[in-house]
Amino acid sequence: LEPGVKEIAQVAATIGRDFDRSLLLRITPRGEDEIDAALQRLAEAEIVLPATANAGTRRFRHALIQEIAYQSLLLARRRHFHGLIADAMESHYPQIVEQQPELIAQNFTASETPERAIDYWRAAGERAQARAAYAEAIAHTQAGVRLTQDLAFTDHERAERILPLLLIRGHAEFGLGERRAIATYQAAAELAQAEKLKSHLVEAALWLQVSEAFLEGVAVGSPPLLEAALAEVGDDETVDRCRLLSRLATTLHARGEVGRASELGRQAAVLARRLDDRPSLIEALSCELFQVGGRPLSKARFAERRHTLDEINQLIESLSVSLPDCVARGATGARCLTAWLEIGDLQGFDAELERYGAAVQSDPTLTVRWVAGGAQVMRAILVGDFALAERKAEESSQLAESAEATLSAGVYGMQMFTIRREQGRLGEVAPLVKRFVDENPEDKAWRPGLMLIASDLGFEAQARRSLAAMAEDNFELPSDSKHLVILSYIAEVAARLGDDSEAAAIYARLAPFADQAITVPTFTLCCGSAARYLGLLADRLGDFSRAEAYFEQALAMNESMSAWPWLAHARHDYAQMLTRRSRRGDLARAMRLTGDALATARELGMSALIQRIGNSASVRLVN
Fold first, then answer.
1. What is the pLDDT of residue 160?
2. Category of 35 on φ-ψ map: left (φ > 0), alpha (ψ -120 to 50) or beta
């Protein structure tokens, strides 16, 4: 090729395999006629394909040809042309600035002024994040991070440039359900703290809390950083302070520090209303819901709970769809789902689940989709569709396996434990639960579950020893969201095998929860009315009148919320109590309750209950 034609090919190759004639005109000193003649010559030589319908765009016939032309340029000339290309795109092509900032970033990175690429890598990461192109967002931000680390900045200047990139990368990692998001946010928060960059510290601490909650299920690094960020923002009435208060309240609730958590949540709600900041108000109102299952809620407060849930949903509906808003929808929606069931309102739960499903459409974050799947399992178990529950649990578990959320194992385990127990297949999961207990001796939630398995499978001596050991510790249990379901496990064993003192001790702890349903937040399990378990304990203690009242209460709640398996259990337990009491009319009522319980158990495939009914005193009397 003639030297002038060769130079045009080299410059075009610097633009890329596809290049635009108008851009070529802007970055070469040659005239329009000369450039057109060179393009014609390149087409004749079959180096560049002829112009198609879009006369402004050409393409090198093969990527290898474009690469050879590019590599034939001296490095200094390449850098020069990359700078010209980036300048031209920045000044004359607003659609590229808006839609393809990574092209400008790539050219500035290869130019004589690579520092100008950093903002464009950030913009490219933000745009990919907004499109849920998480892998792409990670690649763009990582390119910016590497560039920032290689350039000669002071520590403070480098921190100012690298922190926005780290935060976007963390968002993308979280969107993929990758646990490295926790390390990314932790690193960003520590860097921001060291360099006194307050706004970045706030954002990193807030997102660290979210990622730990979803991916680990326990807050480790976020509490001290939330505290540090609060100290940095001071007492001024700002949105940052409001959100930090809410997240810290949520974290403290999860750790069982209810007193301080409630006060911080109250402060956050007051401040959010004063600032008219809806995302902050959503978080402030919902942080109390994190304690669902761990704190008593009387029926007198059910209306207050409904009002709070309605207000939260009205606020969520008023939000535009952006990443922080989607996180608010996801985290808050997960808490609201269980909060409806705790007060026995299946209709409210179903409406919430429908809203949550809509949120999943706008936020394909893996963790949010996993929560939606877990909620579907929760509902299927509640109404006794165990085949659907198992299928959805497997789907949810497989989805979680594509991420790195350690919380998912506990959710799946508790759901499958409940399904297998109702199917009379506890023997299949007993070894897994025992191994989990052995590998996690500090986790007190599973030990009562193992005791319940032993009791169900007939290992009564082992169950009694476990119950006695818990009684020696004064039934000390974590004050977290699993508190109530753990009490229900112990209550069943105490009513079946315990002595009066053990039954009385559990009765005293469970009584404040009488009005609510047994739930495991935020999307795990609902086991019907807590009153059923109090009925069992009152029966064990010989207080038949109180047992009758509790069983009636359990029947009413379980039927109203379509909790058919738990309604069948309550009917059978009630029948047992009536048979033992044996007053006038008790046996006839026991017969009806037993028949109804047996019909439901057969319909739902509740093999364990069918066997228990077959062995019960009420059936023997009926026969």
1. 95
2. alpha
Structure token pair of residue 142:
């990582």
Contact call for residues 453 and 424 (beta carbons, < 8 A): no
DSSP 8-state secondary structure symbol assigned to residue 394:
H
The tens digit of pLDDT for each residue in 162-190 reads 999 999 999 999 888 888 999 999 999 99
β-bridge mates for residue 60, sequence order: 48
Burial class (CB in 10 A: 0-12, 13-18, 19+), 396: buried
Higher pLDDT, 226 or 32: 226
How far apart are alpha carbons 514 and 457 in whole angstroms?
28
Residues 6+ apart with CB under 8 A from 103: 89, 96
Chain-centre distance of CA 589, in angstroms? 46
Alpha carbons 9 and 44: distance in angstroms, whole number: 13
| The pLDDT value given to residue 131 | 85
Confidence bin at 521 (pLDDT 50/70/90): confident
Q: ∠ CA(106), CA(108), CA(113), 5° rounding?
A: 150
Query: 518 phi and psi, to 5 degrees?
Result: -75, 120
Residue 244: name the closest of 195, 214, 277, 293 by CA.
Answer: 277
Q: Give the pLDDT confidence score for residue 336 in this predicted structure.
A: 86
Angstrom CA distances, 495 to 223, 506, 554, 573, 589, stand at 40, 9, 16, 11, 22
Please enumerate in sequence order all residues whose Cβ is within 8 A of that of 322, keeping only pairs 6 or more positions apart, or say none: none
Q: How far apart are the first and last CA of the chain?
A: 104
Helices (H) and strands (E) in the chain, counts: 33, 5
The answer on pLDDT for 65 being more than 90 is yes
Q: Cα separation of 249 and 267, whole Å?
A: 10
Report yes or no: 319 and 325 within 8 Å, Cβ to Cβ: yes
pTM of the model: 0.78
Alpha carbon of 319 to those of 174, 270, 290, 309, 432: distances in Å?
21, 20, 22, 16, 44
- The pair of structure tokens assigned to 8 is 């045009």
The four Cα atoms 67, 72, 74, 75 give a dihedral, to 10 degrees, of 20
pLDDT over 50 at 324, yes or no: no
SS (H, E, C) 423-453: CCCHHHHHHHHHHHHHHCCCCCCHHHHHHHH
Span 234-251, average pLDDT: 90
Give the tens place of pLDDT for each residue, 404-440: 555 567 788 888 889 999 999 988 888 777 776 777 6
- In this structure, what are the phi and psi dihedrals at residue 443, rounded to the nearest 5 degrees? -85, 105
Q: What is the mean pLDDT of the chain?
A: 88
